[in-house]
């Protein structure tokens, strides 16, 4: 194996390692981007708890898998009230 091939493999391993290490942070960024919508749907406390649980790398993945299996959220949306007309 030549030096060029060894350098190529070394570079691939380093890039893969960097990408693998950044995946939890990428998920956290997406969770923070959805904070506003979660607070709007669930309320301030419930929406914040929902986003915090999604932000934690392995907890968020486990929560997502469990919610997909159940078919609904663990933290329900706030009830929708019809607009009052005077």
The proportion of residues forming helix, as a percent range, comes to over 70%
Order of helices and strands: HHHH
The number of E-state strands comes to 0
Structural class: mainly alpha
Cα separation of the termini: 82 Å
Residue-averaged pLDDT: 84
Report the radius of gyration as a whole number of Å: 21 Å
Molecular shape: elongated
Largest sheet: none
The oligomeric state is: single chain
Helical segment count = 4
Low-confidence stretches: none
How much of the polypeptide forms β-strand, as a percent range?
under 5%
Architecture overview:
This protein has a domain at 23-73. It has helices spanning 3-33, 35-42, 44-55, 57-70. The chain has 86 residues and is mostly helical.
């Amino acid at each position: 194996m030549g030096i060029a091939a060894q350098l190529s493999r070394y570079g691939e391993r380093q890039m893969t390692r960097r990408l693998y290490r950044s995946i939890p942070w990428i998920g956290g960024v997406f969770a923070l981007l959805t904070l506003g919508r979660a607070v709007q749907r669930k309320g301030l406390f419930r929406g914040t708890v929902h986003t915090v649980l999604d932000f934690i790398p392995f907890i968020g993945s486990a929560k997502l898998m469990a919610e997909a299996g159940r078919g609904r959220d663990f933290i329900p949306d706030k009830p929708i009230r019809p607009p009052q007309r005077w």
